[in-house]
Amino acid sequence: MLGSKRLHGQQLSGLRFGLCKQISIYTFDAIGTLATAVWERHHKNQTFAGDDRNELELLPPFGDTHGAYAMAEIAEMFIGTRPCPELPDVWLGVTWGEKEEAISVGSLDLGRTVRGIITKDGGDLIDRVDQLLSHYPTNDEKRQMLMRQVICGMTTLSKEGIDNEAMAVCIALQSFTGENWDLARLSRLASSTQT
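RE: above sequence
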């Protein structure tokens, strides 16, 4: 759904999953394209290929009375020359405060939680970890080795480390299990398994 002929797939994936650490002006092109699609979905009931689950309806429209914000307007907001719009306090029955509270992942035991997910149907832990890490969204060997150690219970992550790796774990779990995983679900599962 994020469309840009100037960003390659890995950059778009990082943007979609909140892992983008360096942005360029072309990032605003992709965000502007998304804003236009969301606006058209809400105001013109437009449907789009690739939005089979109607995810665009879950996002609040990002624009003004004239239409969606485009690349230039979003870039102006980013550098501070244009004020950012106010988002609704409640969207789809959830307040932003509740959502932020639900996805606080800094204190969860990431290794134990992931271990429980990947071994719930049985199987060898080492084989399952290898399968999960084949879906990890980075080829950085140090990060993969660290996650292998965390999942196997050999080490733990700091709060900052959990914040840095939790989204990547969700992406890998989504590919590994074929289910939707996000920070809120991971946090809820971790909370329910803590003793």
